[in-house]
Automatic annotation (TrEMBL):
Name of the protein in question: Sugar ABC transporter ATP-binding protein
Molecular-function annotations in GO: ABC-type maltose transporter activity; ATP binding; ATP hydrolysis activity
Domain ABC transporter: 4-234
One GO CC term, this protein: ATP-binding cassette (ABC) transporter complex, substrate-binding subunit-containing
Entry keywords, A to Z: ATP-binding, Nucleotide-binding, Transport
Residue range from the parent sequence: 1 to 238 of 338
Entry similarity comment: Belongs to the ABC transporter superfamily.
Source organism: Paracoccus thiocyanatus
Length: 238
């Protein structure tokens, strides 16, 4: 488990200030959902936590360590994207083990990690299949498996369910919440869907134009929205 602590984070793209100044602490072991309308800076924030993008200024700590200048593989994080491009020519097993093989991990450890991830995600009977032989939900599980094998302290999800149909999305939400309970890892989950946020989060961060409008439990946001934006956004029909 690991806390993520962000202070005075700023991000500009050219002349555009996407995140003016952001302070946020994500508690260790929480399922924290970053929610806000399209274009408000959710992906930008997540990519900076991952180390895929550099802040213009500010500080960031993961598990007490300053991660400025650290590449993604040094941060103890793993990220799952919306478009989970699997390697089409590789089996499920090889897709899941790819990062460990790249890091030249011990083969016995690779086998054990893959077996563990497959068991958690109910992929054990499918390990020898290729992605094209899988359903959408199974492919998404493989993408999550690629994150799990790395034993990250922090999981980062960027709208991972938005390409799935409604029924599958509902099922995957439950599976991700169970995964969180089982692993106890810190999870930061980005979505523009307020219903998804309310269902899954133990803590919600509402973003608007790169600023935090409110942080609280789903019940707190629902009962006592602190700004008209939060009230409108949380209460809006989908
Ligand atoms: P969200 O994920 O909340 O939809 P993003 O973080 O993707 O929003 O984008 C926030 C804002 O930053 C948008 O206005 C977007 O156009 C801009 N932006 C994102 N990435 C870049 C980039 N690489 N260069 C210029 N502008 C960008
Ligand atoms: Mg985004």
């Amino acid at each position: 488990m690991a806390e993520v602590r962000i202070s005075k984070l700023r991000k500009v793209f050219g002349a555009v200030e996407v995140i003016p100044e952001l302070d946020l602490t994500v508690p260790s072991g929480s399922f924290t959902v970053l929610v806000g309308p399209s274009g408000c800076g959710k992906s930008t924030l997540l990519r900076m936590i991952a180390g895929l993008d550099q802040p213009s200024s500010g500080r960031m700590q993961i598990d007490g360590l300053d991660v400025s200048g650290k590449v993604p593989s040094e941060r103890g994080i793993a990220m799952v994207f919306q478009s989970y491009a699997l390697y089409p020519h590789m089996t499920v097993r090889d897709n899941i083990s790819f990062s460990l093989r790249l890091a030249k991990a011990d083969p016995a450890q690779i086998d054990a990690r893959v077996a563990e991830a497959a068991e958690i995600l109910q992929l054990t009977p499918l390990l020898d299949r290729k992605p094209k032989q899988l359903s959408g939900g199974q492919r998404q599980r493989v993408a999550i498996g690629r994150a799990i094998v790395r034993h990250p302290k922090v999981f980062l999800f960027d709208e991972p369910l938005s390409n799935l149909d409604a029924a599958l999305r509902g099922q995957m939400r439950v599976e991700l919440m169970e995964l969180h309970k089982r692993l106890g890892a810190t999870m930061i989950y980005v979505t523009h869907d307020q219903v998804e946020a309310m269902t899954m989060a133990d803590r919600i961060v509402v973003l608007n134009k790169g600023r935090i409008e409110q942080v609280g439990s789903p019940l707190e946001l629902y009962d006592t929205p602190q700004t008209p934006f939060v009230a409108g956004f949380i209460g809006a029909p989908r």
